[in-house]
């Protein structure tokens, strides 16, 4: 894929970059805000770092030009490339929620946990998160501000539910809201919205509260890491909340019947049959397959089961 085909201009010096998770196009997006103080949101995986560098070079951002790298949360499909990008762009400050900061400075515990989940597939999908100098990391709390220069700024808003270290980011100029995974996974080919509820942090009430927080910010557009820009803000946030409730209700019913994970997965699949065009009988199996790899039913159901067990 040529460098130019990785880049989609979105207006007002915002550029979507296809970060090519495990070589797959159209599944993970980073965003460059080419302002007076250029900012990269969501660098993607370690394996994505060379792709991101090529795109930034194409957009005129040299090694000493990038001012800030921001991650919505520290899951490896979003933040796995932070250490690599920090080395490539030595002037860039790294911004992350305070609950994730220590894992960027010392990723050993995070990588051990990830390897337990993914096994050998970890290297293919994500690669190794490399440490970032602690002095270059800025942790934000409930809110924070990233200076984009010229009076433009990103304001961070703590938005847990998907992960306890998750933030959303609102651009003061455009009204774009970078939603990370807090609003789930958006499939642009079919306009489907599916939940992203992996263990160990998922919590329904917290996730729904974060969606309401996003709504109250009155964004003009949602920018999904998976995948791309969405202008139907209210409808998409409504759908995101609806899907969360449906999945949790299906898993709760299965759990109340004493059913195991496999049966809970089957219950969700039955309850949601026909809800997603990407998974329908006439859908492209490759499209469904790549999103299943990213945010699979089994992983999401396991996260919901874990949450219900915690509250029991």
CATH topology annotation: Metallo-beta-lactamase, Chain A
Number of helices: 11
Strand content: 15-25%
Distance between the termini: 49 Å
Q: What's the overall geometry?
A: globular
Note the run of SSEs as H and E: EEEEHEHHEHHHEEEEEEEHEEHHHH
Q: Reading side by side through the largest sheet, how are the strands ordered?
A: 1-2-3-4-5-6-7
The CATH class turns out to be Alpha Beta
Mean pLDDT: 94
Poorly predicted sequence stretches spanning 5 or more consecutive residues:
none
Query: Total number of β-strand segments?
Result: 15
Number of individual domains: 1
- Any guess at the CATH architecture? 4-Layer Sandwich
Q: What integer value in Å does the Rg equal?
A: 18 Å
Largest sheet: 7 strands, mixed
Q: State the fourth-level CATH superfamily.
A: Ribonuclease Z/Hydroxyacylglutathione hydrolase-like
Helix percentage:
25-40%
For this entry, what is the oligomeric state of its chains?
A: single chain
- Assign the structural class, choosing from mainly alpha, mainly beta, alpha/beta, alpha+beta, or little secondary structure: alpha/beta
Domain Metallo-beta-lactamase: 27-226
Organism: Thermomonospora curvata (strain ATCC 19995 / DSM 43183 / JCM 3096 / KCTC 9072 / NBRC 15933 / NCIMB 10081 / Henssen B9)
Protein name: Beta-lactamase domain protein
């Amino acid at each position: 894929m040529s460098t130019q085909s990785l880049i989609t201009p979105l207006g007002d010096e915002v550029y979507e970059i296809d970060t090519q998770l495990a070589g797959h196009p159209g599944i993970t997006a980073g965003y460059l805000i080419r302002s007076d103080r250029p900012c990269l949101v969501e660098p993607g995986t370690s394996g994505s770092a060379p792709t991101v560098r090529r795109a930034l070079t194409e957009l005129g951002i040299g090694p000493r030009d990038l001012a800030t790298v921001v991650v919505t949360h520290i899951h490896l499909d979003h933040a796995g490339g932070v250490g690599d990008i920090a080395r490539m762009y030595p002037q860039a400050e790294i911004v992350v929620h305070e609950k994730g900061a220590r894992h960027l400075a010392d990723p050993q515990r995070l990588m051990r946990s990830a390897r337990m989940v993914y096994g050998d597939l970890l290297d293919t999908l994500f690669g190794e998160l490399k440490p970032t100098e602690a002095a270059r990391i800025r942790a934000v709390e409930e809110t924070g501000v990233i200076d984009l220069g010229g009076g433009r700024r990103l304001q961070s808003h703590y938005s847990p539910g998907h992960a306890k270290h998750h933030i959303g980011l609102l651009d003061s100029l455009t009204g774009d809201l970078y939603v990370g995974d807090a609003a789930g996974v958006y499939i642009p080919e079919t306009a489907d919205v599916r939940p992203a509820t992996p263990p160990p942090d998922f919590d329904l009430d917290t996730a729904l509260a974060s969606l309401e927080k996003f709504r109250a910010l009155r964004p003009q557009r949602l920018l999904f890491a998976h995948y791309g820009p969405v202008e139907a803000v209210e409808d998409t946030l409504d759908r995101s909340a609806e899907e969360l409730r449906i999945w949790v209700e299906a898993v709760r019913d299965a759990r109340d019947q004493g059913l195991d994970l496999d049966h809970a997965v089957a219950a969700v699949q039955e309850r949601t049959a026909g809800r997603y065009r990407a998974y329908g009988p006439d859908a492209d199996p490759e499209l469904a397959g790549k999103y299943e790899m990213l945010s699979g039913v089994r992983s999401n159901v396991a996260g919901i089961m874990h949450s219900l067990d915690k509250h029991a």
